[in-house]
Design a protein that fits this description.
Three copies of one chain form a homotrimer. The first copy, chain A, has six helices and no strands. By secondary structure, chain A is mostly helical. Helix content of chain A is 75%, strand content 0%. In chain A, helix 2 packs antiparallel against helix 4 and helix 4 runs parallel beside helix 6. Chains A, B, C: Homotrimer; The trimer binds only one molecule of glutathione.
């Protein structure tokens, strides 16, 4: 069995692993938030989910949409749309031998921006709080993509 | 050209590669299921998709939603929301040098939970079948995240 | 600090990194397209987003859906559903030591298919343009999954 610990001895890669795990755990929290609002507000998408709240037509009244649930779901989808590119581009960027402090700055800004984006979406804070958080995370990912393609383009 | 086969000689990494490929292929099957129900039930989201079923106003009647199609799409989105964290956290966990049998247990439980989740969603089975499958997969990913951060935190 | 540049000296891996960065950047462009149509058409999902266009009930009229915005969002979600499997399976396939020209053919076809899919979705082109682009990308990912499992299955 080959020792892979050398990959994890690389400081940029360890930092990427830590920040990625944090931002993905944050994204997973959105599932819990959706479940929490669905249960406390009795708002469901599937007939089998509200079978415990009544029989037949009585249960069907819980098959509805709710502003708060939809808001959490939009925040969750926005996370997916932005964290997937960070995951792919960030991994490849980490392996391309970037400067440690530059790489950590990228990771910190991205994770901070996504956490602030969630707060701004769920409270909600007035615009442009959420828009700025979105564009900061977006810009960080594009900056990593640019550095990666500039140094390692191979088509 | 550098030999990368050493990475694939690592048993944890090969197991991760196998289980990930299976669960991602399962997720891709959801696209086929959506296409199948859209075509057999004539339920479309885009005007150009139903142009073959009639002209003008006659075709527009197929621009509608359908319970079964929406159910498959919710199952697909739930897959995305859960498999993306598994992909990122699982990859980094696999590279952090975990015990082989512990790692394989994590991968098997996750893939089994997601396959059971899809079955419970599409049939559908009564709750809490789907909820338990969801929380099992969720717990496995969180367990990998915890082990990763405990051993390799670098902020 | 361990040198990781050996991973990036591998030509298949460098090609994967380049094509992945391009297709993820293309996916990120969909966010910008959504924002563009939301702002120019004044179509918003959140009350705080349209607060700048008027007070109270006057602003609420912009909380609506729009065919063009929904079309971009469907194209974006389809990207997510297809690029996530490519990201996971393609990474593991790249590390499994495939033939360079075969690997590059896979990457080129996938990236070309996804770019054509977006063009066919947004213009829109008549079917089966979009369907063929979808199935080409889908088939490329399945082909990589098959080659990976055939050579490296470990359950």
């Amino acid at each position: 069995m080959v020792e892979l610990t050398q990959l994890m001895d690389n400081e940029v890669f360890m930092a990427f692993a830590s920040y990625t795990t944090i931002v993905l755990s944050k994204m997973m929290f959105m599932s819990t938030a959706t479940a929490f609002y669905r249960l406390t507000r009795k708002v469901f998408a599937n007939p089998e989910d509200c079978a415990g709240f009544g029989k037949g037509e009585n249960a069907k009244k819980y098959l509805r949409t709710d502003d708060r649930v939809e808001r959490v779901r939009r925040a969750h989808l926005n996370d997916l749309e932005n964290i997937v590119p960070f995951l792919g581009i960030g991994l490849l960027y980490s392996l391309s031998g970037p400067d440690l402090s530059t790489a950590i700055l990228h990771f910190r800004l991205f994770v901070g921006a996504r956490i602030y984006h969630t707060i701004a979406y769920l409270i909600p804070l007035p615009q442009p709080n959420r828009a700025l958080a979105f564009f900061l995370g977006y810009g960080v990912t594009l900056s990593m993509a640019y550095r990666l393609l500039r140094s390692r383009l191979y088509l």
